[in-house]
TrEMBL record, chain A:
InterPro entries named in the record: AhpC/TSA, Thioredoxin-like_sf, Thioredoxin_domain
All residue ranges annotated as the Thioredoxin domain in the record: 15-169
SUPFAM superfamilies: Thioredoxin-like (SSF52833)
Organism encoding this protein: Halorubrum halodurans
GO molecular function terms attached to this record: antioxidant activity; oxidoreductase activity
Protein name: Peroxiredoxin
Coiled-coil regions listed: none
Pfam families: AhpC-TSA
Source organism superkingdom: Archaea
UniProtKB/TrEMBL annotation, chain B:
Residues covered by the GST N-terminal domain: 4-85
Species of the source: Halorubrum halodurans
Family matches, as PROSITE patterns: GLUTAREDOXIN_1 (PS00195), GLUTAREDOXIN_2 (PS51354), GST_NTER (PS50404)
Pfam families to which the protein is assigned, alphabetical: GST_N_3 (PF13417)
Protein's recorded name: Glutaredoxin
Length: 169, 90
């Protein structure tokens, strides 16, 4: 293994367990079309919200591969969020993320409201989402939260899965 | 908040779709926009609801009508809602 430096991301005041997930409306992209949807309109039971870097970044690809492998979208509704456009989300969903729908937040305002923004070094003007996972209950209350603190970083998938299992019990 | 009764399947910057939008706006009708794929062959959702892959297409749950072709849609909307005032709710 070559040694490499993991970049620490700055501390962030992100949404945590016990808080109500901030409301937002953004284009929600499925395999066939997209339309503006409010988070409150789509949450009517346990729901997984996954923030991720731009579509096409390797972290994003890996996260969706893992979601697919673990079949999370069969267990509960799973929604992604990234700054990528609806057209890019459609391409992403054509390849992976079976059953997942993805919100498009190019301005990163939703991402910032969750405290999970990341100013990408060397890409002027681009603020994207760091990897982050929020598990919501019927009332949109966050029951489990994980936010990446290094670059790159990946969710603790086993911990997410056991939080999902606990909530669905 | 209830969802609008009219769903418009549209393509970004498609002049025929904008024509329908202008009519919806002029009549004060609430509608939900569903943007679809520019590639005609991939618009299966539109084919499923309307029988054709062309946009614009509308689904009006007030009346149970599904329709494509902008001229037909404009004529239908004007005929159904022109004199009824703002009938978006129902």
């Amino acid at each position: 293994m070559p040694e490499f430096e993991v970049v620490e991301l700055p501390e962030t005041d992100h949404v945590t367990a016990g808080e109500t997930a901030p409301e937002f409306t953004r284009p929600l992209v499925g395999e066939e079309f997209w339309e503006d949807r409010a988070l409150s309109a789509v949450v009517d039971g346990p729901t997984l919200l996954v923030f991720h870097p731009m579509d096409g970044a390797f972290q994003t690809t890996y996260v969706y591969n893992e979601i697919d492998d673990r079949g999370w979208a069969d267990a509960l509704p799973v929604y992604g969020v990234s700054i990528s456009s609806p057209y890019e989300h459609k391409d992403l969903l054509a390849e992976r993320g079976d059953g997942v729908r993805v919100f498009s937040d190019p301005s990163a305002e939703v991402i910032e409201s969750y405290g999970v923004a990341h100013d990408v070094d060397g890409m002027a003007g681009i603020t994207e989402a760091r990897p982050a996972v929020f598990l919501l209950d019927d009332d949109r209350v966050v029951r489990y939260a994980w936010v990446g603190s290094e670059h790159p970083s990946f969710p603790d998938y086993d911990a997410v899965e056991s939080a999902i299992d606990d909530l669905l019990e | 908040m209830t969802d609008p009764q009219i769903t418009l399947y549209r393509l970004q910057a498609c002049p025929y779709c904008e024509r329908v939008v202008r009519t919806l706006d002029r009549l004060g009708l609430e509608y939900r926009s569903r943007y679809v794929e520019p590639m005609h062959s991939e618009r299966n959702v539109v084919k499923r609801v309307s029988g054709a892959r062309s946009v614009p297409a509308i689904v009006d749950r007030n009346t149970g009508v599904t329709m494509s072709e902008s001229a037909n849609i404009v004529e239908y909307l004007e005929g159904t809602y022109e004199d009824a005032g703002a009938a978006g709710g129902a």
